[in-house]
Amino acid sequence: VQLQASGGGLVQAGDSLRLSCAASGGTFRRYSMGWFRRPPGKEREFVASIRSGGDTSYLDSVKGRFTISRDNAKNSVYLQMSSLKPEDTAVYYCAAGSGIIWSSRENQRSYDYWGQGTLVTVSS
Predict the structure, then answer these.
(1) pLDDT at 100 (0 to 100)
(2) Which of 30, 62, 112, 116 supports an S-S bond with 66, CB 3.0-4.6 Å?
(3) Predicted local distance difference test score (pLDDT) of residue 45
(4) Contact status, residue 15 vs residue 80, Cβ threshold 8 Å
């Protein structure tokens, strides 16, 4: 499975941005999909995930601001980000995993495939 993330950019605090991740080479609908991010100088962290059936999960600090969704017909997963804050600045990665135990959805090791990352910079 190949993943291609896009949609990053430079925005101001309070703005919105939509990230996209296009998958190819696998049966997309069977995969749980996740978004992770690596802030400058920090470790990569879980942001959001969505199961094949549509269940979602979020990092506490993005709840109510970010929405993960998927379109199985387009083999794509999205991350709609609103009310962006400077602390959301990071390289954002999409990931795919098959057979993920939902209780392990925040664990990076649960995911088999990773995109290349897209940079989101939020200025104050």
Answers:
(1) 87
(2) 62
(3) 98
(4) no
